[in-house]
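A reminder from the course coordinator: this example appears on the midterm review sheet, so study it carefully.

Given structure:
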């Protein structure tokens, strides 16, 4: 503690210690040791806290990765998405194809000798709708056509409509 006198001279007195207070007990080292003990608990808790913060960070990273994997797997949640196949054509104007999960893996070659041409047939009387009878006879008629040297003949039943004829041809 510093004191000042009227003569302008400053004097200081030494620090006061109460170590032992007459019983030779070293309170200074006792307090120091108690602080060290309490500090070790704090250190233990800080280490424990840091450990859990690292675990939380690891779980957050794992959660991010799992969400990413979930998003990826959602794009493959059906057989056709999971087993998707690719198809390419060297000439998409002549031949195109699609493949789903059931397609066999392999390379396939097709030769297109001639592109299909529209065939137009005209009726002298015409038909007013696709459901109008085109074969009013009581017995069936036949529809025949020849392609690439092969003749195909189909029976058209009595009271067949244009829609029925389309189905017969496509079959």
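Designed residues:
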């Amino acid at each position: 503690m510093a004191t000042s006198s009227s003569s302008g001279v400053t004097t200081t007195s030494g620090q006061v210690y109460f170590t032992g207070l007459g019983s030779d007990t070293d309170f200074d080292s006792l307090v120091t040791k108690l602080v060290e003990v309490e500090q070790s608990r704090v250190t233990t808790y800080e280490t424990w806290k840091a450990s859990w913060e690292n675990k939380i960070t690891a779980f957050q990273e794992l959660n991010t990765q799992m969400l990413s994997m979930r998003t990826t797997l959602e794009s493959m949640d059906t057989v056709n998405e999971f087993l998707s196949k690719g198809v390419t054509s060297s000439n998409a104007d002549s031949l195109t194809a699609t493949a789903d999960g059931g397609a066999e893996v392999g390379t396939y070659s097709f030769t297109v000798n001639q592109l299909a041409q529209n065939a137009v047939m005209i009726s002298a009387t015409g038909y007013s709708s696709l459901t109008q009878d085109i074969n009013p006879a009581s017995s069936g008629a036949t529809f025949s056509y020849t392609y690439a040297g092969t003749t195909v003949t189909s029976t058209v039943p009595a009271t067949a409509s244009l829609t029925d004829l389309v189905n017969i041809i496509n079959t």
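The first helix runs from residue 27 to 74. The first strand starts at residue 2 and ends at 4.
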